[in-house]
Amino acid sequence: MGAEIFDDFSSYTAEDFLKSATNLFASQNTKEAILHIDLALTMSNNRLDYLTKKLELLHGAKCYDQYILTFTVQLKNLFDQLDLPEFCKFLGWYIDMFAVTKNMLISILNETQVPGVLVTLYKEILKNPVVQYDTQAYHAFANKNYKLALDFSQLALKQIPISLDLLLLQARCYSELKDYTNSIAYYDKVCNMFPTDKHAYLERGHILYLSGLYLDAILSFRLAVNYGYDERLCLEAIASCYYEEQDYNLAIAYYKRYVPYSTDLKMTHERLADCYQRVDNFRLAQKHIKLAKKY
Questions:
Q1: Number of folded domains in the chain?
Q2: What gap in Å lies between CA 136 and CA 117, rounded to an integer?
Q3: Are 2 and 34 in a shared domain?
Q4: pTM
Q5: Alpha-carbon distances of 267 from 119, 195, 283, rounded to whole Å
Q6: SS (H, E, C) 196-224
Q7: pLDDT 10s digits, 10-63
Q8: Could you tell me if 239 and 221 are in contact, meaning their C-beta atoms sit under 8 angstroms apart?
Q9: Count of H helices and E strands in the chain?
Q10: 98 within some domain
Q11: Closest C-alpha among 185, 191, 146 to residue 169
Q12: Shared domain check, 257 and 209
């Protein structure tokens, strides 16, 4: 089967093209072989299976440039869909044939949101695929190595697909890295998967506040309270959101409720004084200025 495939394309299946590609690689007709395996990949209902077959054929035929190109383009897709040892097999071939530095390889993986730590771990995983990486993730986070914690958490989630603690750890890592967009996205993921987790809503609220999304933050704080978080611990945060939204009357209402629980009464009274000044209530503003001076 060669150029004539174009005469009646519909009469061939993905399996036909895979077989012809295998034969063409064996006869060193590389250009035609790649065309056939790509046709097989296009026609197949199981694209992942045919993608891995393509990589195996390219590797076996020592078509290194094509392998490197295909694997690089499909890195994230392969990492997400393959089990960890199988992904590491293909990654190992990629590393062996790609003449670039270790740091460059790590950058390529990181750029595609694949854990860069795999560049140094893939051999270990191939030898011992049952190693659990959640412990390393928590250890890296405790040591404030947030990027490494993210890498290990991704590996752990390949082994433990649903873990509230690991998903929260990922959101917290992005928060610590000041990547609030990704942090919010991961908190949203947690809230969708675990819709009654009060801690996720609380932490999400703080990141929304830092992102200037004050009304969304208020909603998140209220959901935290609805699902069991102590409202007293959210009063100041909600008040601050209303303050930033320039809704000073509601800010006053929440700051007043917060006064009995405040751990910084000087700041709380100063903020109340500021709010009262902004709504032209100078008498109460002066009252809270005086109260602030007592602390």
A1: 3
A2: 12
A3: yes
A4: 0.85
A5: 49, 34, 18
A6: CCHHHHHHHHHHHHHCCCHHHHHHHHHHH
A7: 678 889 999 999 999 999 999 999 999 999 998 888 999 999 999 999 999 999
A8: no
A9: 17, 0
A10: no
A11: 146
A12: no
